[in-house]
Amino acid sequence: MEEWCESMPKVELHAHLNGSIRVSTLLELAKALNETQRDAINFSQMKHVIKKKALSLTEVFHMFDLIHNVITDHSIVTRITKEVIEDFASDNVVYLELRTTPKRNDSIGMSKRSYVDAVIEGLKSVSSVDVDFIPKTEDSRSFISDKCNGNSRKRIIVRLILSIDRRETTEAAMETVKLALEMRHFGVVGIDLSGNPKTGDWTTYLPALKFAREQGLKVTLHCGEIKNPKEIKNMLDFHPQRIGHACFFEDEHWKMMKSSKTPVEICLTSNIRTFSVPSIDVHHFAYLYEEKHPLVLCTDDTCVFTTSLSKEYKYAADSFGLGKWDMLELSRNAVEHIFADNGVKNDLRKYFNSVSKNMEM
Ligand SMILES: CNc1ncnc2c1ncn2[C@@H]1O[C@H](COP(=O)(O)O)[C@@H](O)[C@H]1O
Ligand SMILES: [Zn+2]
Questions:
Q1: Would the CB of 163 count as within 6 Å of ligand 1?
Q2: Among 351, 360, 319, 267, which Cα is nearest to 4's?
Q3: At what angle are helices 229-238 and 202-214 packed, to 10 degrees?
Q4: Atom of ligand 1 at shortest range from CA of 68
């Protein structure tokens, strides 16, 4: 029998596309690459890293470099996207904000634009579930009515967030924001700042982030993944719509975040496996939950951290003594923090209302 955490409808707001690559696909692509271009990838090293229980942040970012090496053409980006959507849908994620860093790679004729086009191809090519990713101009909603009318096909709403990598220059970050604006009609709703927290400086990305906000894009920041009080303060002063992680916060930061009520994307397994939080019993989830601060459970990178959103729900329930109904409430509350328009929000609110009335858990 399916566990409640699997069958419960869920909302995923912090998932990196390439960090969520299907493990079997990663191994298949890495093996093929290893056969044709021995120097491009160290296959045994990759297998070793996938199996490890705990990874330092340095190892995690090395892993991302290994994953990025297998992207040798646009069709691979399309395949990865298609499979990631299928995997989230089969875990009963009903709304997914998928983030990815547009990549330029001249040696394979890839521009940031063509990379994002390949991601959108991936969204279009999913056939096992219905993918709703084009924002609707008029208020024609079908998600709820289709479900209520006995349409048994699974549906998932997907929106995209384009990430700025902390290794990038101001110009490259600006290019990503301009691309996001051009792609709004394909469901791009926001900008994320991510990448190795030990790299780069806040002032480099600030002009692009300000521009994004002026143009009406939503902004989420990886904030406090390492101890860097000055940067955390600067980030909170910027008033992003959401932040991810919030591990190395000091009293002043909690105070700022509580007064701005900035929702936090919580990635339990990621934080524990990278030692950003020493153990689950001291994870700030408990504090924020107790304080009724807006928070959303997320996966970060299902491949790198061998997790799924239902596993994160189970992990939280087991670790903090929460029941199924508490978890359904947490999932339902996530709807309030999505970046998509009010039409989608209302649609999801109605859907969760009908689920909590009808679901026998
Ligand atoms: C451990 N927590 C994390 N902290 C910071 N950045 C992270 C991350 N997990 C993933 N990324 C960012 O997402 C990229 C992979 O997906 P995409 O190629 O963009 O689809 C990584 O290269 C990194 O920049
Ligand atoms: Zn992340």
A1: yes
A2: 360
A3: 10
A4: 18
**107-128 tens-digit pLDDT:** 999 999 999 999 999 999 999 9
Among 85, 45, 86, CA closest to 62: 45
Closest ligand (CA of 165): 1
- Dump pLDDT digits (tens) for 236-294: 999 999 999 999 999 999 999 999 999 999 999 999 999 999 999 999 999 999 999 99
Distance CA 311, CA 145 (A): 29
Name residue 294's beta-bridge partners.
none
Known catalytic residues are 225
For the record, the structure tokens of 85 come out as 């959507």
Could you tell me how far CA 184 lies from the centroid of its own chain? 18
In this prediction the pTM is: 0.96
Element housing 264 (H / E): strand 264-266
Nearest one of 267, 213, 269, 216 to 237, comparing CA atoms: 213
Mutation probe of ligand 1 site: the residue of 81, 112, 301, 312 with most atoms within 8 A of C-beta: 301
Report the alpha-carbon distance of residue 49 to residue 304 in Å, rounded.
Answer: 9
